[in-house]
Write a structure and sequence with these properties.
alpha/beta; five-stranded parallel sheet; 11 helices; about 45% helix; about 20% strand
């Protein structure tokens, strides 16, 4: 339940359009709902501005579906990451309008149009192999209401490709850089801009890339200040951090 939903609930009770019992029924699962194997955090939207997101990896399809139903039944938007087709089939069986993005491995259902978040966010990928991670970030950003776009396959092996997107890079309020191999693209772009850069090491590369460890260390050791580094392949976390950054700026602007 978000702030607006809670405010509407209180107004409905105050006006008499719902009874005390109806209001209590709606509130009884705050801050969480215990469904035996999981405690679904319905209070999270009040704290963060977005409902709990389901991390599907390691969960059975039935568990994913049960959590999804708990979220949707409360009128919240549904978003799930690291979802395979088995998880989606289980969700779609009880939530037919749910949508699956195979490249991003996400399940989503938007029940309320998200409030647009001001400030363009650009995702830059070093290579085509990084697209699944970038797609996760893109889907996350869209669901959160970000003004988000992508410039793909602009890695440092052809530095002229970066400069081709120079205007987009300089115009972005936040830049998410997804790169495997040695992860150099994050430092190159961060050196060009005043905006914060969120670097996402991807698990692409030959053996010495160690499944993303090499770009992770390279990004952590960037000589350019203002680079935040996510865990390997964590496109979701990068988009959520961009969301929190821009929402914080909005709140600060409203209080000044």
């Amino acid at each position: 339940m978000g702030t607006e939903g809670l405010r509407q609930l209180l107004e409905n009770y105050k006006s008499g359009s719902i009874s005390e019992d109806e209001a209590l029924t709606y509130l009884e699962h705050l801050p969480f709902e215990d469904i035996s194997f999981a405690k679904v955090d319905h209070h999270r939207e009040l704290r963060w501005g977005f409902p709990e997101v389901i991390f599907c990896q390691g969960k059975t399809p039935d568990q994913v579906a049960a959590i999804a139903r708990s979220i949707v039944d409360r009128g919240a938007d549904l978003f799930a990451t690291r979802a395979d087709t088995g998880a989606f089939d289980a969700v779609a069986a009880i939530i037919p309008d749910a949508r699956y993005n195979g490249e991003a491995r996400t399940i989503s259902l938007v029940q309320r149009v998200p409030v647009p978040v001001r400030g363009p966010v650009l995702i830059a990928t070093a290579g085509t192999a990084d697209l699944p991670v970038a797609a996760e970030a893109l889907e996350t950003g869209k669901t959160l209401g970000l003004d988000i776009s992508m410039a793909q396959d602009i890695g440092v092996a052809g530095i002229h490709r970066v400069m081709h997107h120079r205007d987009e890079i300089l115009a972005a309020a936040v830049i998410i850089v997804v790169a495997g191999m040695e992860g150099a693209l994050a430092s190159v772009i961060a050196g060009m801009v005043a905006s914060p850069v969120i670097a996402v090491p991807a698990s692409t590369g030959y053996g010495a890339a160690f499944g993303g460890l090499a770009p992770l260390l390279g990004m952590l050791n960037s000589c350019v200040p203002g680079v935040a580094v996510m865990n390997i392949d964590n496109g979701f976390g990068a988009a959520f951090l961009a969301f929190k950054m821009l929402k914080t700026l909005e709140r600060l602007a409203q209080t000044t």
